[in-house]
């Protein structure tokens, strides 16, 4: 009985092993390091391990503890969509976001100045982004009451505002343009930008 | 020299122990002057602004404000002394206790209107709530929505906010009302445009007391997906209010109209479907970011208790007030003719009775009714010289608009007060009509409208 259960568990682990994973920072470091050797050295995995190592050595855990699994097997490239960030000076930054990743994480990976103070726990409004086209805004899912409550507190709120940590990349929003507001609710009127930017 | 004498008389009369008619304990049921002839000899008379009255007037002006219910005062008193912590302090017991008191009040207010407590925002009164909603909604949606619909009989704070928006470039439609004071629903439907951002119609009018067809208006707004705002300052605690039935997105409420304290009010802002506002008060993000600033705990607690009491006693109050209203109206109509009730008699809140007496001048009527505290028009227009714009919107002639008197009946009004008010009003109107040449002409059968008055 026990053996059967163990073997089933072992089977599942063996199945999941080759897939790419985005593990939480605390607790799985050792595993991730060993997987890094097994995984194919595709561009995606390199950025993943790179940012993981960055997080390891920096004190700010700006990686959100979210799971994003790819839909295919490890041999396929993760499907990505194009996302364009427009910062407060009007400069455009084009990035590619794998499907299933939330926008805040994607921004952090690409060193975009989007603060995520509560690390995707829906407790702040600092990852506030403005969807520049209404049709893309309509393609996103309706925000939950909790997200709306936090959005109420955001600085420079508009009709098409969303919290970046709640926008999950999907094929329908390929090419979405997101504007970053000029400030957050944190009072950095002296121009102070919190680390790790 | 003379002012000194006046002040010393006032001081003497105020500090003297009062006998008979007026005593501190009977503040609420104010007793009227006993005999009108004995003013000069009465030692206990009050001398105020050159007028001598022998007792405190009857208070029949419930629409301008209401006396504080003693039970509300008890709650506020305790809260003032004990809940002195800042309700937004998260780190210590004082803050937690004060926050708890505020949250209890929030639930009490929400229950009265059928909302969730998360949708209530406390502020300084219905005026602030009206300003925040009208300006805040339009400023938030200013890129897409440029049009506001309201009525001509709204409270001055709504109309002034709309005029301010007009100065900023928005367009406002002021809907006319029918002669009974109610909004014409077809006209409302026709004035809706694709860029209409807000419809604002007050639930119970403060001057004439008519109750608008809220459910129908709410249905129209829902069809066209336009946020519906209502100034319910005169409505809550008096008529059944339900934000779901009325499909209201914003509601303004006032504390001092329901036997609560002055200086506090609340705003209902719907959460589902979410409507957004640009706040008037920026700051630390208190009250959902819509009204920053420390809450006055004891005011909020008083407002909450007033709402709870109003919910419990609404039915009883309604019966009592309806009875008194009928007594007043029938009493006046028995003795006088030419008495017109302004506004619909059916769709009306019983505690507000606005009467016009034909062929009588309004100011002189008010002067003669020194022992009855009533208002002509509304408190907000009494400082200015214009006749009431609400009565003008009803299509009332100017001469009738000038003679209108608004009687406000409330929870603490007594039958004796009503009887005395009837007696004083009838006497004064008869006296003025005796002197009135217009009345004489009407009695002789001359049609006043055909008279050619000479140009001044």
**What multimeric state do the chains show?**
heterodimer
Molecular shape of chain B: globular
Uncertain runs of chain A: 20-63, 66-76
Write down the overall geometry of chain A: globular
Q: Give the number of DSSP strands of chain A.
A: 5
Mean pLDDT across all residues of chain B, rounded?
88
Helix content of chain A: 25-40%
User: Given this structure, which CATH class of the largest domain in chain B is correct?
Assistant: Alpha Beta
Helices and strands of chain A, in order, run as HHHEEHEHHEE
CATH topology of the largest domain in chain B: Aspartate Aminotransferase, domain 2
> At CATH's second level, what is the architecture of the largest domain in chain B?
3-Layer(aba) Sandwich
- Top-tier CATH class of one domain in chain A: Alpha Beta
Q: SS-based structural class of chain B?
A: alpha/beta
Distance between the termini of chain B: 41 Å
Describe the 3D structure.
The complex is a heterodimer of chains A (197) and B (456). Chain A has a 5-stranded mixed beta sheet. Chain A is globular and about 65 Å long. Chain A has a domain at 80-179: Beta-grasp domain (Ubiquitin-like (UB roll), Roll), CATH 3.10.20.30. Chain A starts with a helix and ends in an 18-residue tail after the last strand. Chain A is built from 6 helices and 5 strands; from the N terminus they run H-H-H-E-E-H-E-H-H-E-E. With 197 residues, chain A is an alpha+beta fold. In chain A, a hairpin with a 5-residue loop joins strand 1 (80-86) and strand 2 (92-98). Chain B is an alpha/beta fold and 456 residues long. Chain B has 2 domains: 70-309, Aspartate Aminotransferase, domain 2 (3-Layer(aba) Sandwich), CATH 3.40.640.10; 314-444, Aspartate Aminotransferase, domain 1, CATH 3.90.1150.10. Chain B is 41% helix and 12% strand. Chain B is built from 15 helices and 14 strands. Chain B has helices at residues 2-15, 70-82, 93-113, 126-140, 156-168, 185-191, 214-224, 243-246, 297-335, 362-368, 379-382, 389-393, 398-402, 415-435, 437-443, and strands spanning 46-48, 51-53, 58-59, 120-123, 147-151, 171-175, 196-200, 228-231, 250-254, 265-269, 339-341, 352-357, 372-373, 404-408. In chain B, the strands form 4 sheets. A 7-stranded mixed beta sheet of chain B has the order 4-10-9-8-7-5-6, sandwiched between helices. In chain B, strand 8, helix 8 (243-246) and strand 9 (250-254) form a beta-alpha-beta unit. In chain B, helix 2 runs antiparallel to helix 9 (297-335). Chain B is globular, with a radius of gyration of 24 Å. At the A-B interface, helix 6 of A face loops of B.
